[in-house]
Specification:
The protein has 474 residues and is of the alpha+beta class. It has 14 helices and 19 strands. The strands form six sheets. The protein has a six-stranded mixed β-sheet with strand order 16-11-6-7-8-17, with helices on both faces.
Length: 474
């Protein structure tokens, strides 16, 4: 029996030491993450240290085998629990490290040739002509230089995308260098064009950008966040048309949130170009162009932005375990999904179809922006619900590569602390800008008239006033 005791006691001492080490690591990581209010962190410290002392006493007492057995089981369970907590903490740290301003945007370029041409790779264009647009992208000069490092090429530039397309189709130029967001616009406006070409070379360039955040204490001061949803899959850093445009006004004192939706085809003045265009096209020139354009339209200051894409919606909704979103109408989307009037339980793909659909509605894009706002509300409600705890890790993994924001890590952690401390119930209101249908010339598409929505100034003024009211309420 004595020999058996000698073998057991070292294990129990090791168990006590392991508990102490894991307790210290857990508390240090909580302190580093800094998402718990001070009093909560203090209570957690006292509880974990108390549990650690009690369990250590149970397993290290020299009398009472049953007491030691119970203490051993409880100690092992305690260690397992803290290991799981540490995993959550490490995931949180990894996620928080990825937050904050990203000082570049990604431009994606393609070299097009006619589908039935003899050109199969970039080298086949040596000594030929290549058309391009002279105004569309900040990285165009670098893109041309990249081509010229590989082949000798004669660039012919134009400011008219329709003229560029016609020159290409008439074989006045052998090829076309174009940024993918502009190519998507061509494909959308001319359904036959997509079948006329093939891509023989493509590449991406990262273009440096400046942080445009207007910082405030988001736990005390009201603020505006611009949400941009671009019409692509894959990397969120890519420039592209912005199909979702929302201003989320948050007042942490009154616990009110106002979601203002702006239709993608709103006919606005691009801030950096001083020319009329669709709002969606502002995204081609970077999110800073969209922000400045909306600030001018609504006469407001936008403090921060969040940028997502198609992949983001799918990943985030699935990570949340689906959401319940409200639909004003019963309809079947172009993707074949059916939605009842009222609340619908949706997964990621069905959520994306819901926010993209517009052809099923007589009001078209007007109804779509209402659905997009309803989806944002559904995401907020699910994210602040207790059920989020069970999906915490999967949500962080989904969020890690699903959005870009210029909110700082400490802003987000401070906001989380405020939410934990106060546990407020948020009052969410949705409004949208409206207008009348029209056709007009746009800066990005040159000499061809496109469908646009002419702003209803009354709805613009109403939105400005509501935003100001939320911001100023105490």
């Amino acid at each position: 029996m004595a020999k058996r005791k000698e073998k057991v006691m070292p294990f129990l001492k090791f168990l006590a030491i392991a508990m102490a080490i894991i307790t210290i690591i857990t508390l240090c990581l909580f302190y580093f993450i800094d998402i718990l209010p001070g009093e909560y962190f203090l209570v957690l410290c006292v509880l974990l240290i108390l549990f650690n002392i009690i369990f250590s006493c149970l397993i290290l007492v020299r009398r009472g085998a049953k007491r030691r057995a119970v203490g051993t089981v409880l100690s092992i369970l305690y260690i397992i629990l803290l290991v799981l907590v540490i995993i959550y903490e490490l995931n949180t740290i990894g996620f928080l490290k990825k937050l904050g301003f990203v000082n570049y945007k990604t431009e994606n370029y393609s070299v097009l040739v006619l589908k039935d041409s003899k050109y199969e790779e970039l080298s086949d264009l040596d000594g030929k002509t290549m058309g391009s647009l002279e105004f569309t992208s900040d990285g165009l000069k670098d893109a041309k230089e990249k081509i010229e490092k590989n082949i000798t090429i004669d660039f012919k530039t134009t400011s008219d995308i329709t003229a560029l397309k016609e020159s290409f189709l008439k074989e006045e130029i052998a090829s076309m260098l174009i940024e993918d967001s502009m190519l998507a616009m061509l494909n959308e406006s001319d359904s036959n064009f997509a079948n006329s070409y093939k891509v023989i070379y493509d590449f991406s360039l990262d273009v440096e950008t400046e942080d445009i955040a207007s910082e405030v204490d988001i736990t005390k001061d009201a603020f505006n966040i611009y949400v941009s949803g671009i019409d692509t899959y894959g990397s969120v850093s890519s420039v592209s048309r912005s199909d979702v445009n929302m201003i989320i006004t948050v007042n942490p004192k009154t616990h009110k949130i106002l979601i203002t939706s702006i239709p993608r085809d709103y006919y606005v003045t691009l801030a950096g170009k001083n020319a009329k265009d669709k709002l969606t096209h502002a995204g081609i020139y970077g999110i800073e162009e969209s922000v400045a354009t909306l600030e001018n339209l609504l006469d407001i200051n936008i403090n921060y932005y969040v940028k997502v894409n198609f992949t983001s919606v799918i990943d985030i909704v699935d990570a949340l375990g689906g959401v319940n979103v409200y639909s004003k109408y019963s309809f079947t989307s172009q993707d074949g999904y059916y939605y009842n009037q009222g609340y619908n339980s949706v997964d990621g793909k069905k959520a994306l179809s819901f926010v993209r659909e517009r052809k099923s509605f007589s009001e078209g894009d007007r109804t779509r922006v209402e659905n997009q706002a309803a989806m944002i509300e559904a995401l907020i409600n699910k994210a602040i619900s207790p059920s989020i705890i069970t999906r915490y890790t999967s949500l962080l993994n989904a969020l890690s590569n699903s959005f870009i924001t210029n909110l700082k890590t400490e802003d987000i952690t401070n906001f989380i602390k405020m939410q934990i401390d106060d546990m407020p119930s948020w009052d969410i209101e949705n409004i949208s800008l409206n207008g009348r249908d029209g056709f007009d010339y746009t800066y990005s598409y040159g000499g061809t008239k496109l469908y646009v929505m002419i702003p209803d100034n009354e709805t613009v003024i109403n939105a400005t006033n509501k935003i100001e009211t939320i911001l100023k309420e105490e």
